[in-house]
Amino acid sequence: MLQAKVSIIIVNYNGQILLQKCLESISKIDYKNYEIIIVDNNSNDDTIDFVTKNYPSVILVKLNENKGFAEPNNIGAKIATGDYLLFLNNDTVVTTDFISKMIQAIQEDKKIAICQSLLLKPDGKVDSSGDFIDKLGVVHNSKTKIDELREISSARGASMLVRKQVFEELHGFDEKFFATFEDVDLGWRAWIIGYRVVLVPNSIVVHTGGMTVEKLRSKIAFHGFKNQLVMKITNFEPSLAIKNMFLFFLIYGTRELKIWLDYTFKGKTKLSATKYEDTVAKKPSFRIIFKSICWILKNQNYIMKKQKEVNSMRVLSTEELKKKFIICE
Known about the structure:
By secondary structure, this protein is an alpha/beta fold. The protein folds into two domains: 6-214, Spore Coat Polysaccharide Biosynthesis Protein SpsA, Chain A (Alpha-Beta Complex), CATH 3.90.550.10; 216-313, no CATH class. Helices cover 41% and strands 20% of the residues.
């Protein structure tokens, strides 16, 4: 039986050492019908020379500036010739059958649009077994060891297989996101239009995590919080988006006030445990919150256009997604 073609898309920025380990592991996989597309964000290390000399069959796209994660992946997707797009981080090491297991799962159900590998840390602990979205649009990363295929709210872009047809139907990653949460946004929108997103636990990928974004910490922090706000506005129904944004800032503000009062009058540490310690994004500073709100106001035309488009395509309501436990309490 002819294997479906998979286009492996890797975005790279000054990650030659990481990329070398990643490509070495891909060369040992048991799946044969694939192509590799590397989109380089204007690296100034030896990435380009290394890939050109050692992996001449790799399709290499060199950008003239660092365009983050979303747009470079979209660029790779546009030139991909596969039936499936496999978005893979450069700081991953894959197992021999990681593609085979995901292809098997996705081909068993036409409603499955996106699969995620089980991501492990180098020490063997779970890095991610999928992301889940709560009723306020806050994203939580599951680190539970899973043995059976299960539905998740969204898949991690570190190792994510997507039907190319669905990726195009969703217009790819939102390029306004730059980096972080573009994978969550894509998965959420896939659910909204009636597809499924699943974790394939026997597809194993070791993920170092954070090696590239660490170099852009301040910029990533801003985009992370800004992107969360955008998702809340665009992916909930309009009336629910307003309500949830109000509740989110009320809860966040109340939490910060309590921490400040405890610190000021009770001598407790500012790092007191909070309900949202397991969220994907770190707690933003007030400067980042203010900057994000200003960005939202400046880009409201884009946001309203996207909100209208998402909801015009809606097949499943937020209430229906809650019943499926895709949106969690």
